[in-house]
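notes to self, project folder thing:

trying the whole complex as one job this time. last attempt i did each chain seperately and stitching them together was a nightmare. three parts in total, labels are on each line so i dont mix them up again. if this works i'll redo the older ones the same way
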Amino acid sequence: MDVKRRKFLKIAGISAIAGIGAPTAFSTLLKGEVNASSGGGHGEATEKSDAHAEEKVVGKQYGLVINTKKFGQIAGLAEKCTAACHAEHNVPDYGNPKDEIKWIWTESYNHAFQGKSDHKKNDALKNLPILVTCNHCANPPCVKACPTKATFKNKDGIVMMDYHRCIGCRFCMAACPYGARSFNWKNPRETYANGEMKFYPNGINKEFPTRMRGVVEKCNLCAKRIADGKLPSCVEACGDTKGIIFGDINDPNSEISQVLKNTFTIQRNPTTGTRPSVFYII
Amino acid sequence: MMYDSGKIITGLVIFVIMITFPIWYNVGGAEQLPKVEKPVGKKECVQDTQFMRTSHMALLNNWRDEVVRSGERQYQVVEGVKYEKSLQNGCMNCHTSKAKFCDECHTYAAVKPYCWDCHVQPKEIN
Amino acid sequence: MLEKALQGKHAYWGWILFLLGVISIGGIFYVFQYFNGLGVTGMSRDVSWGLYISQFTFLVGVAAGGVMLVLPYYVHDFKEFGKITILGEFMAIAAICMCLMFIIADLGQPLRALNVLLHPTPSSMLFWDMIVLNGYLFLNVLVGWVVLHSHYKDAPAPKWIKIFIWISIPWAISIHTVTAMLYCGLPGRHFWLTAILAPRFLASAFAAGPALLLLVALIMKKVANFDAGEKAIQKLTTIIAYAAILNFFFVGLEFFVAYYSELPGHTHTFDYLFFGSHGYDNLVGPMRFSAFIGIVATIMFLIPKCKQNTTLLPIMCIMIFLSLLIDKGLGFVLGGFVPNPLGAIVEYYPTIPELGIVAAIWAAGALILTILYKIVLSVEANKA
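result (full assembly):
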C-alpha cells in the first residue's frame, strides 16, 4: 500500500465520522457483524440445517496443535517453550503477578479449559501442564473491540499488535476470553542507577524490539520468524519431540491438518464462538 | 476614552516579551549545523540523500505499516546487498551509531522521536 | 453571561478555591502517573480496568439522567420543571466532561487518543461511545446555553433550538446504551454478558442523576436562595422512586437467572460480590451496604411522609446516589473481572495516586457544575 492510498483511506475514515461517508462506515459495520455472526454457529444454522456445520474456509490460518501428553512426559519442556519465546520477544520479567507480562505460559487443565471439569478425572490430568497462549482466533473478539485497529488479523490469520498505534485503552484485554493479553503497566526498559536493566536480567534480544509503557502485548505467533522461513520459537524449543505442531490449518495438505484430521483434539472455550486456532491433544 | 491605560500597556509589554521569549533567549546561541557521521565505504542508501534527509520518518512509518500490517517484508537491495525493512535490523547495519547519526540532527532540531523506546540501538546499551 | 461566574461571596470563592486545591493535588498525581505509567494504579493484568473506567461508567448515567427533566418539560410541557431543566442540562455537561477526563486518565498512551479518529473502527463499541458522548456534550452545551441566554435577554428561545432539544432526548438514552454495550457484547465475561444491562444502566441512571440534581437543588435552596418549587421537587422524587424500583427489579432478575439456573459462570461473580468467593471478599461490605441503603431509600421514596420531610429528603438522595455509585461505579466493573478468564480470582485495591486523580476529576466536575449553576443563579436573580 502506498502513502497516498493510506492517506486517502484515513481521510475517507474521518469523513465517515463527520457523516459525509456514513454509508461507507455503515457497510463496514454490517460487514463486521456478518463476519461475527457466521462464527457463532447460529448464523450458519440458517443456511444449513446443522448448527455445528464446518466453518467456511477463507485464506490462510496459522495455528498450533499442542500435544499435552508430550509435555506431561518430558519434564521442563513447557518451561523451555516459555523461556524461548520470552527471550526471543523481549518479554520483561517484573517478578510480580500484578505487572506480569506473558505470551505463552503453563496452566492446569481446569484453569486452561474453562467449563471443563477435572472432577473424578484421571490423576495424570491434574498434574498435566497445559501451555496456553493467544489462540489467533478466526473470529477474534479483541480485534472487534479495538477502537484503532491496533490489533488486527493479518493475511496469515495471525492476530497481530501494532504497538505504534495502541492507545492503551485495554478494551482488548476485557474482550479476550483467554486472558492472553498483557499490558505494560510500567516502562519495561527501566534501569537501575548503574544503567542495568531492571526487568531484563538476562539482557535483551537485539534483533527484536521491546515494548514501551502503556501498550498491550501478546503472542504474535512469531510472524517475523515465519516470514524468515523459521518455525515459531515455542515450536523450535520442542525440538523433535513434536510437542507442538505448527502450520496452516486451512491447508488440507499441511502436517497440522493431517494431525487434526486423525487425532481427537479440543480447543479452549469454543462456546465463545471465537474459533480458536490452537488445538490440544489431551 | 481609555481606562487603565497603564495596566494595559504593561500587560502588552509583558505579553510581547513572553511570546518573543524563544527568540531573544536564543540570541547569539545559533549552534553549528550538525555533522552526522555517515557510514564509511557506502555511497547509496535505500533512497537518495535528499529524500532521506527530509522524509526518512515517513519512509520508516511506511515500512512499519507494510511489515507489521500488510506483511510486505521484501528485502531492500542497496549496492547489491539485501537489507531487512527494519530500523533496528536494517538501517542500523550501516548507520551503526545512534548517537552520531540520529541524535546529532534530532538534538539540533529539538525533535524527540520515540523510536528507541522500543527498538534496540546497536551499541550503546547492553 | 459568563462574567456572572466571577461575581460571588466569600463562601463561593472559598468553595472554588477548595476545588482548585483538590484539582491541583490530583493534577500532581496525574503528572506522576503520566511519567511512570499506569503501574502507579492498583490495576493489574487480571483486573485491567479500575476506578477510572468504573467511575466513567457511572457518570455516563448521571449525564443521561438529565433527560428525566428535559423530557417532561419539553415533550409533556410540565411547566414546573421550567426552573430546573437547565440544571439537568448543565449537570450533563459536567458529568460528560468528567467521563472524558476519566477516559483520558485511563489511557496507557493518552497522547495517541486521537488515533480513534485517525483510524475509525465502527466494529468497536468504544468508537461509538466516543461519538455519542461528544455529541451529547455538544447538544447540552448548545441547548443549555441558547435557552439560558434567551432567558437572560428576556427573549423567547429561538425555534431552531427545538430540533436539538428533541434530538437530545433519544441521544441521552443512546449514551448509556452504548456504554452498556462496551460490556455486554464481550463473549468471555459472563457477568457483563446480559441483555438487560442497558435497561438496568438506564434505570439506575434515571435514579442516580435526578437524585444528585435534587440534592444540589436542595443545597442551593439553603445557600443561594434558589427555590426549585415544591411541585418540581415532588415530581423528581416520584421519578427517582420508579427508576430505583426498576433498577432493583432488574438486579433481582439477574439474581434469579444466576441462582436458579446455578450456571457457574453466572453465579461466580455474584458470589464474589455479595458473599465472597474462596476467601476473597473485598467488595462484599460495600456491595451489601449499597444494596441495603439503596432498598431502604427506595422504600422511603415511596412513603409520602418521608419525601415531604425536608430533613430526610436530602439524606434519601445521598443514600440512593451512594448506593448506585457503589453498585455501578465499583462493583459492576470490578466484578466483571472476577474470576479472570482462567478461573483465578485477583482483587483490586486502588492506590493513593489513583484516588487522588479520581478526587481531582470529581472536583473538576464539581467546579464545572458550580460555575454553570452560578451563572444560572445570577440570571435568575436578575429576574427577581
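what i see at first glance: The radius of gyration of chain C is 21 Å.
need to look closer tmrw
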